[in-house]
């Protein structure tokens, strides 16, 4: 976004941490409120708008949404102010290969051409700032948990990291991340067994026939990615953590819709490649330094199906310095 949060500097850390913590809990609570509203099969009376409002859920939901939206608006306003204080980038520079603009700068440039409103920009910034927050942390947590109970797989991860980084303590480069092939297989296998987003909803734009059943145009269909991800027609060891499921030759023979943790089609996850890079970066830092052992193993610590999948008892692991 072209905005530095400065969460690591001593002068700013208290103020920034308060913002980050408030945003984190706001997003988690918004998620919980959404689950209550959409999936309240045990409390169907909450589907009735008057009861929903009288319950207090709506006012609390609105307050939390305002908190997150205000944070985004502040980021946009601060960036606008800094851009106004300097010479605004011209058209030639924007299209030059010598300079890549931050995403927010591109949106603000489009606004100056009267193509986007403030709210249009806020919605796009919200997508990038918040959509990958809980989902990526869920993916990282579950990968740590799965590797913590799979010592042979973790040994291969350590060997791969040692071959790429050796004894160096440097930060990973983009080329380093490309070489972490086995770690990426582990991330994908974790997402197969415990997808960050447990449910995906789609509205049909035409009739769909499945067997002898016709799903009519306009129907909302809920897709559960973990169903095909544990189907023994597509997976050699469907209930086990087995990163070799993602060997290139096996992937080429598999129906691509058997694995959809990022959804599929024209409305799939816009940030899926970035999410995997984030996870590889964080996980490489952890496993370069530590051996991980899970305190509670599968099938214990069952995932809790909120809007974002979370382990019911948290990610409880023991870290041992390598």
From TrEMBL:
The keyword Metal-binding applies. Keywords: Heme, Iron, Metal-binding, Monooxygenase, Oxidoreductase. GO terms for molecular function: heme binding; iron ion binding; monooxygenase activity; oxidoreductase activity, acting on paired donors, with incorporation or reduction of molecular oxygen. It holds the Pfam family p450. Heme binds at residue 269. Its cofactor is heme. PROSITE patterns: CYTOCHROME_P450 (PS00086). The keyword Heme applies. InterPro entries: Cyt_P450, Cyt_P450_CS, Cyt_P450_E_grp-I, Cyt_P450_sf, Cytochrome_P450_Monoox. PANTHER family: CYTOCHROME P450, CYTOCHROME P450 FAMILY 4. Belongs to the cytochrome P450 family. This is Unspecific monooxygenase.
